[in-house]
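re the bet — no i am not wrong, look at it urself. input seq straight from the record:
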Amino acid sequence: MHTVTTAPMSLAEDSDMRMRRYLLTMAVRTACFLLAVVTEGWLRWTFVAGAAILPYIAVVLANAVGPRWGAQISGADRFSEAGPGLSAGRQSAAVGPTSHSH
């Protein structure tokens, strides 16, 4: 049972949060471009580096999906996915022609 404090975010909330993070990061990148034009020296190169690195960070943050309820597989689910029957070793021994010497 999930309580309000332990339930994960809905898909829409998660998507909205990731979009806001992306837009905020790209706004900071735009500010870095503008500040690189109006500053000089080492500060200019710091802003240029920020403008070059921020797209990677923005994409990584935008693709960071939160946990979902269905993401965890219990022990019973893992067993049922394997399916009933013999293991691969015993199954291969039972399949195919057998040779009998008479």
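see?? Residues 18 and 61 are 7 Å apart (CA to CA). told u. also Residues 90-94 have pLDDT under 50 and may be disordered. so pay up
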